[in-house]
Amino acid sequence: MQTVLGYTTILLENKLSTDVLLFPATAPFLPLFGLTPHHMPPPSEHFVYTIPASYRRMENLHILFWLLKDIGWCMIWKPLGISMIFPTLSIALLITWRTRGIKAELAHNLAIVFWITANSYWMISEFVGFDAVQLGYGFTGKHLALVPFLLGLGILAYYYLIEKPRETQPEQVATL
User: What is the model's pLDDT at position 23?
Assistant: First the structure.
């Protein structure tokens, strides 16, 4: 783990790891994840995934759009909330496409795409009054947001239960 400009970089222990930027206030929670502020795996044993500055700027813009969308929802400013769906979802899809070669990034970014989709549907259902419409079996219009939420959760479950264990297994060497 390294601290640079007030952010902490943690190298996750698997074949292909990602740099995780954490605010300094998160330091007390690191032991919950088996990490300590003084733990730094030897660089020769791990690969590091770095994010190009242009991608980081795009991710930061994505966060801005997402926040504006949710502020519009919270304040019931329908034009703001609805107008921010397209840029938020578009950048999420672009980020997913650009990082598709790394299984961990693909899984998490797809989950984010489905989260934004569910979140946007839920917001629109509240804006147009469909959220409280009874659909049957105790489900209302807003419960349809569960479909993309569960798709995202399913993708993450698949990654953590199937793909990640494959990544961390040592390679088998055949000898003759």
Answer: 44
